[in-house]
Amino acid sequence: MTGPDTDDADAAGLVEAGRVLFAGSADFYAAAQTLDRLPPMEGVEIAFAGRSNVGKSSLINALTGRNTLARVSHTPGRTQQLNFFRIAERFALVDMPGYGYAAVEKAKVEAWTRLIHAYLKGRANLARVFVLIDGRHGLKSIDTDVLDGLDKAAVSYQVVLTKGDALKKGEVEARIRGVEAGLAKRPAAYPQVLLTSSRDDSGVADLRAAVARLLAERGA
Question: What predicted TM-score, i.e. pTM, was given to this entire model?
């Protein structure tokens, strides 16, 4: 028998599971600028992607409760490789290079792009990509190009809106619904959109819970 009370209990259980998960160890263990430098495929991997300056490193630090796990920079395009972090000996969190920043050498951008595409297509243990979108602006064409690639590669992904503290209260629901509508016909998209802010930690517990749910589904 299920009902509202059961659903609430399940949600609370996932929030607690997420809290415990990210309260555990969190350690950098590998970096790859080329395909041949990728670490062996061991256990579940969950990747974080997003355009440059979307707040990806700040959100990873908020998730793990560590201020310096992922390097935060005010200079877009600072993450120039795939960075791998082992979380609580349960899964690998992969910080991907930011996309959409043009003020670097064209050859370097093309190399990053090839690396990312090769990683997404060939990583059998990649459970999901969390795609971070600036909550102030919603989906832009540069984001939908990335989603097109994930759909084509049949890689499961979920959209996470960042900088939610910058939205007015009346804007939140409309922004979430607008993004969900844009994902409705995308085959690889997880339907629920999360709203977060690394500044005030809002939505961070929900994101932790989403990761805990995914790991439970994968038996990790």
Answer: 0.90
Is 101 within 8 Å of 75 (Cβ atoms)?
no
Please report the pLDDT score of residue 74 as a whole number. 47
6 versus 54: which is more confidently predicted? 54
C-alpha–C-alpha distance, residues 93 and 123, integer Å: 13
Task: Domain count for the chain, please give it.
Answer: 1
What local confidence, expressed as pLDDT, does residue 80 receive?
Answer: 73
What does the alpha-carbon distance between residue 79 and residue 95 come to, in Å, rounded to a whole number?
A: 8
What is the C-alpha separation between 96 and 42, in angstroms, rounded? Answer: 18
Single-letter amino acid code for the residue at 200: D
Determine phi and psi for 46, rounding to 5 degrees: -130, 125
Nearest Cα to 134, choosing from 167, 183, 101? Answer: 167
Q: What is the CATH number of the domain that holds 193?
A: 3.40.50.300
Tens of pLDDT, residues 75-112: 444 557 899 999 999 999 999 988 876 555 677 667 77
Helix residue ranges per DSSP H, the chain: 4-23, 56-64, 106-122, 141-153, 169-183, 204-217
Q: Measured between alpha carbons, how far is 14 from 216 in angstroms, rounded to an integer?
A: 10
